[in-house]
């Protein structure tokens, strides 16, 4: 197991280096000016040139990358051009905020998705299957920003039951786990859970249907194992794939949904990325993408390890 | 010693919870009654910088500039009926040296203190000029240059004469300097120094020390403005509280606390207002205006010093090189219908400024909707339905101050077809568009365009007119994108710039403006009206003809 872990870590290192190179360079492909946040539109080209020199953006890209990587390896992702605040602080605060809704959305999505998937897979072609499949298709098909807006209109603007925007009455800086704050989580997390719910439901349905048709299930039943016993075997066989799917979904959610977080003004990674993109805040953009990409790599690694624990044949393979 | 609590049943737990909840609600209500809190949803995606030179355009100046800070001169925001004019701020008076018109003497207001208690004086002014102009000053901050230096293009240095007198020097005689100085906010040198002194010695690089000291200052700022910074949650909220010792008794805030929230998405902003999360939103979603009014909110708007134009290329290969073609385009846009298209959220533009403005002058060419007159001019220029003028226009799909560029441009395209124009659009991303704007019509980035659609703030004479029409403002110096070069215009610019008497300068600017309308280097289309929706409980609201609004004089029931 330790050898497998080290081997997987070894694979992850070049991936991380490649990711850091890509996320540094990709932002330069976008049109526009890296100093847009501190240079108004009416600033002259002369002043812009002077500022580019002051910020070092006139240096060769490779030189800029090496400097950036060297600092990043020491935990310094630079300072935001727009705010002068350290990028590391900005990114990790946003990751924490996104983590709150992502984990809640994952819990909702995975629970409901697994429920619908099992019902649909176990009772294929029944009305329960049709209903569960319909809900899962809705989940993957509805644009989630639209769903978010509808939820806001209904529950905030019309019924006035839940807040429309923000991360608590005093912002995320004074978050506590009480109703006054938790109510701010509900609409964004619910909106965010729809897609993973649909995907997990469809995956689990297909898996359950496939497993139930396999010979070992017939064998188990022939040996007199009850439905509960068979169900446990189905769950165990479904788990590695369902976990992998859910891990990927959690990875996507941790990246934050730009649209959902913008609709709800939730100060997570999606909201931060949106700001960084609009302000062409390159250090912030590069830092955020890097941290999220590394999270994704780490999460994949974790899922691989968990899969191996559930199914040791993977390690041997 | 331990105390045994009685066993808690679900019913007792529930009743305790209900009691705690009602007490909490009661306390909150009492606290809210004691403190008047105004909550504002801004269009900005982030809290505008609080260090004294805000970003996020003029919305930044509106909410973290004039609230927390003062400048030597300031805009009069007390009337919604006339154009906003310049009035004394931290300077009580100013005058140019008659012997050397590049030198100005500013007499400072006595007995003004920063929020940290340190005195405002001539040293503070010199220090604040140095923060953006003197590379050798410890407080020099490149991140503040962009929004400052470009808005006071001729200021070069400051010198203390005595405790309450400073001398400012410009690169050339420039009567517009007092207008430009509304953009230089006075931050507390003592407070900044305290932040710098608190930095660890390991931060040795002067540039890094300055950057980190300013970042610390932004988190806990100190100006002289009517509000003081109280709580700052980056990217989420800024809370500012009344400065009860503010030097201008008429502008001592009536509202105890103002909470500023960045809500960049229009529908989210509108929902926040409708759900009672905020009391005021900037730029409500146009299609929600009726619903907002139906809920009892008040909608305010007024003509802003803003221009949504097409800036023409006057290069020889452009059809707009011909003045008749430029004037014809101005006669063929039905601005009233365009206003209806925008649900009334614009004012038709008949110049850079409108009648009633002290800089309007008396143009001989009247910008109006007159297709027959436009067609006549086009025929005189050699165009017809069978031989239209093919023009390419650069625009963006969105952007700050661009209003609704695509539907507006498509409407103009249809209008101009009636006057023998064949308009093609080159739609760029907003930042790309204005990067191209800086480089001018000759640059490859212009893609051979005959006009560019970049909206502009037109607050002061330089920004309203000079930068577009002076031959000294050709790219890369400033925004004369279309290479408009005209001796008469240059002479009028020079006259206005060197006229130091206010009345005479307004007349000179009127002449310059009339000349600009007559020469039509722009297709004058629209002015923004800065719509905002406010709760009826906010009183004494004056929406001036300005980008700014004075929260200090408002009340809250």
Automatic annotation (TrEMBL), chain A:
Domain ABC transmembrane type-1: 95-307
Gene3D superfamilies: MetI-like
Top-rank taxon, per record: Bacteria
TM segment ranges: 12-30, 99-123, 144-162, 182-201, 242-264, 284-306
Cellular component, GO, one term: plasma membrane
Localisation per UniProt entry: Cell membrane
Molecular function GO terms recorded: dipeptide transmembrane transporter activity
Keyword Transcription regulation listed: no
PROSITE patterns the record matches: ABC_TM1 (PS50928)
Main localisation: membrane
Keywords (A to Z) from UniProt: Cell membrane, Membrane, Transmembrane, Transmembrane helix, Transport
UniProt keyword Transmembrane helix, yes or no: yes
Membrane topology: Multi-pass membrane protein
Pfam families to which the protein is assigned, alphabetical: BPD_transp_1 (PF00528), BPD_transp_1_N (PF19300)
Alphabetical list of PANTHER family matching this protein: DIPEPTIDE TRANSPORT SYSTEM PERMEASE PROTEIN DPPB-RELATED
Family from the record: Belongs to the binding-protein-dependent transport system permease family. OppBC subfamily.
Protein name: ABC transporter permease
Species of the source: Stutzerimonas stutzeri
UniProtKB/TrEMBL annotation, chain B:
Any one of the GO CC terms: outer membrane-bounded periplasmic space
Keywords: Peptide transport, Protein transport, Signal, Transport
Statement: the UniProt record of this protein carries the keyword Glycosyltransferase: no
Solute-binding protein family domain location: 86-463
GO MF entries: peptide transmembrane transporter activity
A Pfam family annotated for this UniProt entry: SBP_bac_5
Signal sequence segment: 1-33
GO biological process, one term: peptide transport
CDD domains referenced in this protein's UniProt entry, alphabetically: PBP2_NikA_DppA_OppA_like_8
Top-level taxon: Bacteria
PANTHER family for this protein: ABC TRANSPORTER SUBSTRATE-BINDING PROTEIN, PERIPLASMIC BINDING COMPONENT OF ABC TRANSPORTER
Protein name: ABC transporter substrate-binding protein
UniProt organism field: Stutzerimonas stutzeri
Lineage: Bacteria, Pseudomonadati, Pseudomonadota, Gammaproteobacteria, Pseudomonadales
């Amino acid at each position: 197991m330790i050898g497998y872990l080290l081997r997987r870590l070894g694979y992850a290192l070049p991936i991380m280096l490649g990711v850091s190179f890509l996320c540094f360079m990709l932002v330069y492909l976008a049109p526009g000016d890296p100093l847009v946040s501190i240079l108004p539109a009416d600033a002259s080209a002369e002043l812009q040139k002077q500022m580019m020199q002051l910020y070092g953006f006139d240096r060769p890209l490779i030189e800029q990358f090496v400097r950036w990587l060297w600092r990043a390896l020491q935990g310094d992702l630079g300072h935001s051009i727009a705010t002068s605040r350290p990028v590391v602080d900005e990114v990790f605060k946003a990751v924490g905020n996104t983590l709150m809704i992502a984990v809640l959305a994952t819990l909702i999505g995975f629970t409901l998705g697994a429920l619908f998937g099992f019902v649909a897979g176990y009772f294929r072609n029944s009305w329960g299957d049709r209903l569960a499949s319909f809900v899962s298709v809705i989940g993957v098909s509805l644009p989630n920003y639209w769903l978010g807006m509808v939820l806001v209109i209904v529950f905030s603007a019309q019924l006035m039951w839940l807040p429309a925007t923000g991360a608590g009455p005093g912002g995320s800086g004074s978050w506590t786990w009480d109703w006054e704050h938790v109510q701010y989580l509900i609409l964004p997390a619910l909106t965010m859970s729809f897609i993973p719910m649909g995907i997990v439901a469809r995956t689990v349905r297909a898996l359950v249907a496939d497993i139930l048709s396999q010979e070992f299930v017939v064998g188990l039943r022939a040996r007199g194992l009850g439905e509960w016993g068979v169900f446990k075997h189905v769950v165990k066989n479904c788990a590695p794939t369902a976990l992998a799917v859910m891990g990927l979904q959690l990875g996507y959610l941790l990246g934050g949904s730009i649209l959902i977080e913008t609709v709800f003004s939730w100060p997570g990674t999606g909201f931060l990325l949106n700001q960084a993109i609009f302000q062409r805040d390159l250090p912030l953009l590069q830092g955020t993408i890097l941290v999220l990409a590394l999270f994704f790599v780490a999460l994949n690694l974790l899922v691989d390890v968990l899969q191996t624990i559930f199914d040791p044949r993977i390690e041997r393979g | 010693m331990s105390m045994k609590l009685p066993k808690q049943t679900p019913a007792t737990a529930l009743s305790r919870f209900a009691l705690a909840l009602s007490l909490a609600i009661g306390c909150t209500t009492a606290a809210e009654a004691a403190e008047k809190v105004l909550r504002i949803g801004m269009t900005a995606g982030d809290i505008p910088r609080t260090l004294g030179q805000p970003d996020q355009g003029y919305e930044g100046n509106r909410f973290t500039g004039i609230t927390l800070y003062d400048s030597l001169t300031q805009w009069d925001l007390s009337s919604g009926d006339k154009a906003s004019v310049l009035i004394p701020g931290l300077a009580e008076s100013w005058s140019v040296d008659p012997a050397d018109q590049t030198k100005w003497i500013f007499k400072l207001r006595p007995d003004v203190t920063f929020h940290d208690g340190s005195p405002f004086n001539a040293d503070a002014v010199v220090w604040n000029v140095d923060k953006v102009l003197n590379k050798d000053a410890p407080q020099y901050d490149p991140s503040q240059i962009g929004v400052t230096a470009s808005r006071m293009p001729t200021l070069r240095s400051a010198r203390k004469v005595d405790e309450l007198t400073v001398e400012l020097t410009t690169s050339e005689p420039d009567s517009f300097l007092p207008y430009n100085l509304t953009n230089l906010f006075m931050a507390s040198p003592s407070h900044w120094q305290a932040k710098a002194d608190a930095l660890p010695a390991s931060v040795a690089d002067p540039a890094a020390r300055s950057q980190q000291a300013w970042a610390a200052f932004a988190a806990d700022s100190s100006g002289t403005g009517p509000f003081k910074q109280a709580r700052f949650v980056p990217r989420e909220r800024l809370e500012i509280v009344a400065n009860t010792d503010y030097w201008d008794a008429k502008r001592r805030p009536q509202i105890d606390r103002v909470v500023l929230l960045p809500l960049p998405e229009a529908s989210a902003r509108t929902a926040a207002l409708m759900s009672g999360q905020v009391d005021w939103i900037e730029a409500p979603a146009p299609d929600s205006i009726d619903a907002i009014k139906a809920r009892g909110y008040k909608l305010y708007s007024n003509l802003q010093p803003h221009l949504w134009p097409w800036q023409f290329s006057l290069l020889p290969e452009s059809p707009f090189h011909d003045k008749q073609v430029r004037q014809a385009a101005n006669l063929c846009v039905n601005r009233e219908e365009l206003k209806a298209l925008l649900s009334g959220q614009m004012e038709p533009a008949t110049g850079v400024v409108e009648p009633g403005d002290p800089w309007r002058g008396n143009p001989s060419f009247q910008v109006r909707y007159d297709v027959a007159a436009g067609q006549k001019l086009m025929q005189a220029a050699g165009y017809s339905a069978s031989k239209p003028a093919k023009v390419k226009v650069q625009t963006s799909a969105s952007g700050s101050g661009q209003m609704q560029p695509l539907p507006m441009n498509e409407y103009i395209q249809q209008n101009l077809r009636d006057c023998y124009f064949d308009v093609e659009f080159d739609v760029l991303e907003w930042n790309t568009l204005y990067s191209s704007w800086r480089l001018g019509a000759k640059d490859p980035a212009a893609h051979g365009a005959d006009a560019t659609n970049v909206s502009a703030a037109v607050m002061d004479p330089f920004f309203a007119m000079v930068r577009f029409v002076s031959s000294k403002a050709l790219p890369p110096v400033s925004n004369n994108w279309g290479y408009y070069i005209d001796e008469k215009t240059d002479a009028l610019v020079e006259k206005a710039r060197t006229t130091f008497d206010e009345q005479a300068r307004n007349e000179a600017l009127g002449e310059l403006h009339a000349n600009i309308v007559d020469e039509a280097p722009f297709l004058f289309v629209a002015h923004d009206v800065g719509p905002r929706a406010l709760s009826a409980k906010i009183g004494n609201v004056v929406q001036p003809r300005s980008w700014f609004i004075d929260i200090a004089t408002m009340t809250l029931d």
